[in-house]
């Protein structure tokens, strides 16, 4: 046997050693093997799954990344598979990793074994078909309803999800965030209920619950929870922003509570008098008191002392001088009343600051690492950077719409292989004005900072009347990344050096934290300032992958909300350089954008964007920027559902039943009894390749949030590809999917109906 074949057999046998049934919860530890070059990815089992259909039993399983060895006309090559029903071999599958067993019954038991160079590996544990056909309900334990301090009742629904192998058995567990019905955008006033994050086994066993407590507000922008095996021990950890009052609730096998324990506050905070029983939520009266205190210290504010801001609040408000400084309690109260009752409403009728309540603008902020299996607190550190203030320096009082606690509390998170081998966690704060990101490695004992990026403050001449968006920050190194971030981020190796970069909307940071580029372009005729070179700016949607197979490298497709102040409503860019390849000016907030191979007769992946309300479009575009239609598919989320490598779209939001639709074939699935998340965004809990062949599963909450309903595509595919979870870009993007405005996960290579399989990277052979 040749050395190459010997390596293939050994790899195949080692991979087969961890095969097992996801639904059975089999505890199988993978046998050691030498680490391949490139990113350290999960040791997954075979992910075997079966579903009863009208034509028989559909059976599907994973090809692992290390088993892929080459390419054919229809997919990658590598291990083949023997499929067994009730202990008898019924097929040898070579061209895919799925099979339709027309003779199967509802009680048939299936096993699969890898075959490498004629050598069969061990069979995994047997599975039986899902009783619900192509769907399975993972039972949930819904938190109790609650009441806010002002007497408003709220309930809970399951929201964003993530997956991670928390016990090292090669199977995923499910991490579910619970959102209260009074969850808020950062611009919305009011109290919220607590946020809970649960970890479940596939059978519905609740391992533990993290209660973030009253000092973490509920909403898409606040609670990011990356789940990943950060230290390479085969078991996933979870990290999340916490605060005094966050606690871990552990459960026994019978569902009874075993323990409740607060996180460990840093010693300096304990000495300063902070306690886990503190409540930092502002009441309406508390916010008025907060303004009085801020005004009393006005003459000592560093920006005032430096001469950057008006010396008096009267100057800032444009009124005649009235008071001596420093302000007395009485004078500060009078000015606070004027600010809230006269000045703020004069800027915008929406500035009803007397009703401002429920926000958290002071108190400690932490980052906590939790053990994925038990929820045990591994480390808690101060969140970097802290909020500094209630948003005054961040520009939250400067615009016509006064929104304390808004720009300061815009959080993002992600995972990146910054060194090309080990995963780091990324946490970000801010993107409209000051923009910050920090990268950490978890070494199994403590967080080690890789780098910290800070644009610096965007200068203002008057924090109560200015326009800080679109200005450079004070940092000479990172100042140009302000106002470029989106409501999500992406991670990809854009410069092909084997290390991943952070795509922060219209700017990209290199693996070492340096600015790779920040994209600018010229405003066109009809815009606010024709001929001016400006940032592409902030947007709500971003997609990063190899969109054009005839160009080297990756592309980025984004929507932009700058209206007449943005050079494009949508733009396609070169991911390596940030150069705009094509785009379209809209002059309006272009809120949605999507990509997908929806027209297989067209070369490359199509792109499209929609305007507010989703009724108008900017057109359907080819990869060369040619308009091929004015009607467009939906923009909620995409999913790889069909067996022919085309892209499908998840539609449905609010109380509309979600559906999976194909642009040519029509409706492929109606997810009866479920609902999408995040209001008009219409997001799934998760869309990811969590088991079976390379296609993605759809995870939705049931209407009553009693379960997560997992949908499996039972359409046969003749294409063979390793699990997408063994592509480094796709895997970290799945971990990122829970962040703020959920965006689809994409692989690092071109995946469409006209894929050249010889160009698909082979994990471990990069």
From TrEMBL:
Source species, domain of life: Bacteria
Biological process terms in GO annotation: carbohydrate metabolic process
Rhamnogalacturonan lyase family 11 C-terminal domain mapped to chain residues: 137-258, 354-758
Matches recorded under Gene3D superfamilies: Immunoglobulins (2.60.40.10)
InterPro entries (alphabetical): Ig-like_fold, Integrin_alpha_N, RGI_lyase, RGL11, RGL11_C
Keywords, sorted A to Z: Signal
CDD domains listed in its UniProt record: RGL11
Name of protein: Rhamnogalacturonan I lyase beta-sheet domain-containing protein
Natural source organism: Actinoplanes digitatis
């Amino acid at each position: 046997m040749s050395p190459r074949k010997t390596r293939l057999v050994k790899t195949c046998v080692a991979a087969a050693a961890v095969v097992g049934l996801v639904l059975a919860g089999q505890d199988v530890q993978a046998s050691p093997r030498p680490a391949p070059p490139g990113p350290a990815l999960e040791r997954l089992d075979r992910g075997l799954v079966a579903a009863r259909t009208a034509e028989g039993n559909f059976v599907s399983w994973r090809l692992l990344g290390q088993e892929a060895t080459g390419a054919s006309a229809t997919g990658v090559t590598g291990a083949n598979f023997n499929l067994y029903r009730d202990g008898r071999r019924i097929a040898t599958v070579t061209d895919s990793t799925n099979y339709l067993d027309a003779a199967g019954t509802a009680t048939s038991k299936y096993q699969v074994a890898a075959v490498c160079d004629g050598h069969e590996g061990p069979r995994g544990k047997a599975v039986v078909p899902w009783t619900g056909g192509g769907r399975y309900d993972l039972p949930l334990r819904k938190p109790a309803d609650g009441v806010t301090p002002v007497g408003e009742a709220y309930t809970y629904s399951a929201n964003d999800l993530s997956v991670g192998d928390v016990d090292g058995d090669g199977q995923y567990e499910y991490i579910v965030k619970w959102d209260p019905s009074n969850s808020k955008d950062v611009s919305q006033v009011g109290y919220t209920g607590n946020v809970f994050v649960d970890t479940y086994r596939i059978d519905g066993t609740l391992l533990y619950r993290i209660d973030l407590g009253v000092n973490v507000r509920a909403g898409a922008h606040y609670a990011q929870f990356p789940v990943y095996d950060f230290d390479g021990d085969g078991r996933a950890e979870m990290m999340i922003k916490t605060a005094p009052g966050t606690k871990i609730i552990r459960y026994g096998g019978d569902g009874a509570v075993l323990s409740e324990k607060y996180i460990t506050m840093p010693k300096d905070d304990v000495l300063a008098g902070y306690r886990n029983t503190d409540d930092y939520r502002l009441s309406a009266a508390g916010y008025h008191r907060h303004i009085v205190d801020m005004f009393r210290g006005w003459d000592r504010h560093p920006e005032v002392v430096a001469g950057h801001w008006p010396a008096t609040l009267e100057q800032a408000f444009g009124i005649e001088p009235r008071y001596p400084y420093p302000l007395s309690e009485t004078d500060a109260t009078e000015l606070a009343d004027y600010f809230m009752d006269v000045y703020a409403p004069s800027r915008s009728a929406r500035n009803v600051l007397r009703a401002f309540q429920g926000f958290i603008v002071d108190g400690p902020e932490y980052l906590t690492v939790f053990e994925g299996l038990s929820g045990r607190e591994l480390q808690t550190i101060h969140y970097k950077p802290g909020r500094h203030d209630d948003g005054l320096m961040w520009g939250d009082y400067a615009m016509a719409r006064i929104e304390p606690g808004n720009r300061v509390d815009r959080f993002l998170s992600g995972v990146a292989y910054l060194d090309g081998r080990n995963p780091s966690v990324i946490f970000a704060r801010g993107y409209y004005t000051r923009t910050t990101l920090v990268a950490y490695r978890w070494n199994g004992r403590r967080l080690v900072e890789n780098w910290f990026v800070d644009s610096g403050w965007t200068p203002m001449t008057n924090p109560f009347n200015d326009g800080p968006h679109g200005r450079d920050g004070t940092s000479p190194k990172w100042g140009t990344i302000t106002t470029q971030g989106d409501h999500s981020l992406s991670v990809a190796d854009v410069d092909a050096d084997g290390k991943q970069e952070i795509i922060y909307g219209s700017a990209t940071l290199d693996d070492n934290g340096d600015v790779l580029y920040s994209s600018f372009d010229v405003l066109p005729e009809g815009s606010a300032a024709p001929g001016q070179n400006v940032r592409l700016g902030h947007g709500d949607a971003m997609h990063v992958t190899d969109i054009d197979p005839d160009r080297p490298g990756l592309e980025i497709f984004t929507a932009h909300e700058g209206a007449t102040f943005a050079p494009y409503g949508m733009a396609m860019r070169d991911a390596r350089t940030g150069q705009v390849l094509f785009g379209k000016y809209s002059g309006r907030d272009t809120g949605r954008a999507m990509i997908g191979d929806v027209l297989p007769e067209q070369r490359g992946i199509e792109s499209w964007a929609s305007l507010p309300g989703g009724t108008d479009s900017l057109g359907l575009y080819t990869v060369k920027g040619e308009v091929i239609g004015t009607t467009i598919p939906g923009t909620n989320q995409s999913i790889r559902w069909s067996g022919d490598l085309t892209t499908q779209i998840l539609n449905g939001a609010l109380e509309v039943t979600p559906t999976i639709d194909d642009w040519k074939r029509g409706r492929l699935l109606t997810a009866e009894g479920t609902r999408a998340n995040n209001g008009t965004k219409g997001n799934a809990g998760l869309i990811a390749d969590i088991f079976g062949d390379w296609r993605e599963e759809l995870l939705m909450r049931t209407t009553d949030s009693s379960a997560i309903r997992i949908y499996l595509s039972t359409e046969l595919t003749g294409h063979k590809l390793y699990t997408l979870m063994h592509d480094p870009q796709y895997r970290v993007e799945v971990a990122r999917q829970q962040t703020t405005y959920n965006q689809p996960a994409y692989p690092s290579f071109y995946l469409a109906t006209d894929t050249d399989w010889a160009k698909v990277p082979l994990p471990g052979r990069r």
